[in-house]
């Protein structure tokens, strides 16, 4: 079940939020009870710079409105090329799908999720104050949030990029959603979600926030986002939500039966390795670590049950293949993994 808000955070809200945020507590309980379908999981923004040479990007977007019900796909309200509707959730989803398609097309030469022009579909206004967003194997689905803790989930471009990247993983490495391979699945979505946002904003690695889900908390929450890639464990520290529990080093790896073996928790470890490698190299992250990670994802060399060490070794190998032996890129990737407790020898 590939959702952006991890179950441990929803459980915390359901248990602790009621006195102060009764609507949020009830919304979290409903979100925990509901299971998404079992299969899981561009136009540049006006006025933003084009940081790479222009290239065609022709997504096929279809946005539907669930109108507060939990029935998919809902009523089709905007198709490719149609004007903005004035419904913020509809138009944000449309733009976010376009931004994601644009980054994958221009940077990696990938035409949509499946690489073969798959239509990009999304449903907004899902459920009554639904506290999550998810990829169900066919479409993005966005709740509106409870209004007390969570805003609408189309407010964050990194959330949109994250969920669509689950679709890319389904069509490439097929990382099993359990344990370390599941944490890698979540990590890949965080990494490409961050890259989508950085590409749309023209941000280099130093200027980027490295936050996933920035903007989805209301002003009542003491927190910046759901996760911080560069500083796992620091995204929020709130009297209701508690403190962000993500580890950022292998020595703090969390063994648990919850959350498919801690997939949203332990993804902080490879997240930090990625962000550190990107900031060491500087410049635009999609031009170096992004390309390396995409090469790994599409290499055919990953096992569905890949662990952190195996994935790390493949990133070093791909860095050498793309940028050359003992290149800055290979060394930065090695340094990133070493900083989180995973030592990888140079690729031979």
Automatic annotation (TrEMBL):
Its cofactor is Zn(2+). GO terms for biological process: proteolysis. Residues 72-170 form the Peptidase M4 domain. InterPro entries: Metalloprotease_M4, Peptidase_M4, Peptidase_M4/M1_CTD_sf, Peptidase_M4_C_domain, Peptidase_M4_domain. The active site is at residues 163, 264. Keywords: Hydrolase, Metal-binding, Metalloprotease, Protease, Secreted, Zinc. It is found in: Secreted. Its EC number is 3.4.24.-. Residues 59-84 have a biased composition (Basic and acidic residues). Extracellular zinc metalloprotease. This is Neutral metalloproteinase.
